[in-house]
């Protein structure tokens, strides 16, 4: 009997949280892109332009084969864009939505979940577009799309834990936000977007694999190119990088919630 | 049952130690009851309102909530200035699980905003903003309305309609104005020195408050 009650309580709570996140997504889309229906397309425009330009630049810079191909950089950039989009928006997430906390069903993590859902839709949508474009330009279809999707999901979770931490730190120390903006672009050369571990000298391979994002790029390229490369990744290593920041970040948000002033 | 506070404490960190604002509040608000809470400036009224509304968590103590309590009416309802009144209404309807279209229709007929309902809230006067917030809160139809300070609705058509609706609702009003409590409430309490004292007789509460 009491078990049934508890279960209903949990289901209700989950339904309410989904409702809040859904409402926040709609609100965020309206505030970011205006009220015209086509405004939503801007969500895809930014990653599409950035990814396209970077892929074309690398394609034009010479080199041969997949190493400088459109698919390598355009699709890779979307995995990077997911991380960058989520983490670089984390610093002002609490500030921009503070007054919503007057409605007690809105929690700090909800504010982040809503933004992350939007970033995932943008990156995954444009990535799918680039996959189709790559095939249309005569490239091969992805070897195992499931691995690419898994890489996206894991990148979402990795970025989310970091965003929770960044959000709680910047709610106390606002200046830390500037550092985050620089860091999200600063890690571009070392995050795994630009290289494959196989191409590095053996000593550097080991160093590169300390970086959790490198594993995710390897996983995605395993799905994208199959046997053409030897790939290196360890899902349990990624797991720790997801769990650790989530625990620290959620604890930080709890502290931040008690300190966020509403006046 | 309704809303129950058991030994609720709230303190804030200050430069020199902690400031203890609430020091052991015990209170029970039953569904449909109309309670006035009187407090002087700086007695912790805003803190108490935020705790009652579930916006802030107590440092210590328990809160049991078995009726729907509104957000503190009179405080900003979290409107986004760049969005229209209608969009803000839709957002609040969604998070409170109310039918979106009917909520907007109600606000349209009640708030007397005319075409402004489709304009950004940034363009509203303070009065329009307040009417929007009040109309939305009525549309949500809470068991208990939590009211912070005076309701500046005045003797307009809107003000009378709002007053009439509020006269039938459960109410917790936290204020420094005795007249409002006498006019709207059936029970009263005085907030002083971080504790809350209830009086069954309103006159007794007002006398205690006036002697503070």
Characteristic key phrases:
heterodimer; A: 263 residues; mainly alpha; disordered N terminus; B: 212 residues; alpha/beta; Rossmann fold; 2 domains; five-stranded mixed beta sheet; 7 helices; globular
Subunit arrangement of the protein: heterodimer
Number of helices of chain A: 10
Give helix % range of chain A: over 70%
Low-confidence stretches of chain A: 1-5
CATH class of the largest domain in chain B: Alpha Beta
Notes on the structure:
The complex is a heterodimer of chains A (263) and B (212). With 263 residues, chain A is mostly helical. Chain A has one domain. Helix content of chain A is 73%, strand content 0%. In chain A, α3 (70-89) packs antiparallel against α5 (108-136). With 212 residues, chain B is α/β, with parallel strands linked by helices. Chain B folds into 2 domains: 3-70 and 165-210, P-loop containing nucleotide triphosphate hydrolases (Rossmann fold); 78-138, no CATH class. Helices cover 33% and strands 28% of the residues of chain B. Chain B has 7 helices and 8 strands. Chain B has helices spanning 45-52, 85-95, 100-110, 126-140, 157-166, 178-184, 202-210; strands at 3-14, 17-29, 34-39, 60-65, 144-148, 170-175, 187-192, 195-199. In chain B, strands 5-6-3-7-8 form a 5-stranded mixed sheet, with helices on both faces. Chain B has a 3-stranded antiparallel sheet with strand order 2-1-4, covered by helices on one side. The two termini of chain B are 32 Å apart.
